[in-house]
Amino acid sequence: MLRTLPNLSWLRIASHSAGLPRNRHARIARTTNSVERALTPYPLSMQMPEFIDEARTPAGELIRLTRESGELVVRADGAILMASGQSHSEILMAEIGCEGLRGRKDARVLVGGLGLGYTLRAALDAVGPRATVVVSELLEAVVTWNRGPVAHLAGHPLDDPRTHVEVGDLVAYMRARPAPFDALLLDVDHGPDSFTSEGNGALYDPPGLARLRDALRPGGVLVVWSAYDCPAFVKDLKRAGFETEVVNTRARGHRGPRHTLFVGRISAPRKPPRRR
User: Fold this and answer.
1) What is the distance between the alpha carbons of residues 2 and 89, in angstroms, rounded to a whole number?
2) H or E stretch at 264
């Protein structure tokens, strides 16, 4: 879960150059405005942040890991992307996606975006001892942070033998058609039409949703994290063959920023009745 601060101007430019319908222009404009409001820089306190480390994204943005008012915080261009006290929605998405998997011996879960490790930890807690949880993370630096200064936040989930780390682009990983999963937990963008990189649109367009559907076992669950509601994406999920649900939650449980979880399920085939 590395939500790097995007250059939001490309959303407007790309929509006009592609000749999109007017209602699609309006959708992009609303998304851009909501993301800009969500990422407005603000301090957790008036104290000077304690610098821990920094790295650059493939797009060149500088991200910094700091400690502020007792919380570990990841910022890009001054805007808070992640904070250790705002983990409720990240934990909830794993609880929803992995419900019922504890008793499945060969359960497989994909966590798209490592972040501060909370979704990975919740997934590991929800599955059995022989399960496999693959985490796909774009930046090696985020993996390093989760082995070092932020490892304790989620109980060192990268040390769990059930965890398998894939460093690289999630779109490329899905295009390689990995073995099917019981749950896909994706938290790599601000939302399904506000991307941390332009290439991530291939996760949410019709071919991308078809790949996600095909990557699920029968009865599997897709959960997509978003900083805002997006009714059009619900329609896209339905057209792709998912049974859909929208879960609205808060970053700190009953307070904090509002987040949305888009849930898509693949129906399991019905078992034939037993012969008497």
Assistant:
1) 15
2) strand 258-265
Distance CA 126, CA 137 (A): 21
- The answer to whether residues 128 and 244 belong to one domain is yes
Per the CB < 8 A criterion, the answer to whether 128 and 203 are in contact is no
In a domain, 187, yes or no: yes
Distance CA 261, CA 263 (A): 6
pLDDT in tens, 113-140: 999 999 999 999 999 999 999 999 999 9
Question: How many distinct structural domains can be found in the chain?
Answer: 2
Question: Which one, of 123, 39, 54, 87, lies nearest residue 250 by Cα?
Answer: 87
Question: What does residue 132 show for φ and ψ, rounded to 5 degrees?
Answer: -125, 130
Q: Is residue 1 part of a domain?
A: no
Q: Are residues 64 and 158 in the same domain?
A: no
- How crowded is residue 29: how many other Cβ atoms within 10 Å of its Cβ? 13
Smallest CA-to-CA distance from 250 within 240, 260, 265, 264 is with: 260
Does a structural domain hold residue 116?
yes
Q: Which of 49-63, 145-159, 203-217 has the lowest mean pLDDT?
A: 49-63
pTM for the complete prediction?
0.84
φ, ψ of residue 188 in degrees (nearest 5): -120, -10
85 neighbors 73 (Cβ within 8 angstroms): no
Please give the residue range of the domain that contains residue 60: 9-83
Q: Alpha-carbon distance 171 to 125, whole Å?
A: 26
